[in-house]
Amino acid sequence: MTDFVFTLLVNDPPATILSAALGTGANAFGSETDIGKGVKLGTSQNYVLCADDDEIEGVVASVEPFNVNDGFTFGTVQVDRRVEAEVGASQAGALAVGALVVSDVPVAVATDGVLTVKAGSPATFKWRVLRHVTGTGVTGDTVLLERI
After folding, report:
1. Residue 111, domain CATH
2. Strand 46-49 relative to strand 58-68, pairing
3. β-strand partners of 118
4. Distance between CA 130 and CA 133 in Å, rounded?
5. What does the radius of gyration of the chain's CA atoms come to, in whole angstroms?
6. Does residue 121 form part of some domain?
7. Under DSSP, is residue 132 helix (H, G, I), strand (E, B) or coil?
8. What predicted TM-score, i.e. pTM, was given to this entire model?
9. What is the number of structural domains in the chain?
10. What's the CA gap between 91 and 145, in Å, rounded?
11. Does residue 5 fall inside a structural domain?
12. Which domain holds residue 74?
């Protein structure tokens, strides 16, 4: 086993965390169950859950117990650095270190789960696999992603 492995970056430098309205309307996002899920920019000055094959613009970092913008859940979104994700069920074979990823079929809002990914060809919001945290990169394994 190697002595050094890539890990989440805590503050070297700090990740960019944006305050944001979350979800598709009044009270659409749950609570802590939505932390770690992938999001993209919505049409109402908000972030919404990524759908299958979407580019990942960020990951929910917090969900707060109040609303903004006529009922949208308030929270924060991490848009860079490193995050952990789960290899989704749509991934055929192992997800290689260095592979670019997009969102796989997401875990529903207000349901326990994290960002699920699969190999893809994002054009604008590029995240790559930096390390296999568990397993070899197959469905259900945890991977460390880095925004490039």
Report:
1. 2.40.300
2. unpaired
3. 102
4. 9
5. 15
6. yes
7. strand
8. 0.93
9. 1
10. 15
11. no
12. 17-147
